[in-house]
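Pilot study result, target chain (160 residues):
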Amino acid sequence: MITIRTARDADLDGFLTLASQVEHWFGPMVEEPGVHRAGGAPHRDGAARGAAAAAAAGPRGGRRVGAEPPTYHVHWLVTAEHLRGAGVGRLLMAEAMRRYVTGPGTVEVVTFGPDHPGAVESGARVFYERLGFRPGEPADPGPEGGSRQLYRLDVPVRRM
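Predicted structure:
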């Protein structure tokens, strides 16, 4: 059973393992500060939020978002290789939307450009499109030199 919860310092090793599974698409990540922040407690200012899709064996996915209304940023989202397509990423995004995105505003994420090998293999573009994101303008290339593209999701005012 997968549970979505706030990331803990003890999740860091699990997040580093997840990061190592996608380094072939993103370039070196294990030493990146953002990955370390995703695996630890949220920053004191609340700007960086980490969550874990956890099972008994440790993190099976993780994400970090920046909640700076009216623009919210998905800084990092990864699912364990063997669980991609099983709904873990969707659960992580649903929890982030419920917890941090109040609207009105826009959620932004930079993902693979259409010509990047990871665009199809990872399923990232299709994943975000199924969540309602739409492709935007090209973004700066990734650290490995691959193309990137901004995706956006408009968020209306949340009705209570």
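One observation from the pilot: The helical segments are 12-20, 23-26, 33-38, 88-100, 117-121, 124-130. A full batch analysis is planned for the follow-on phase.
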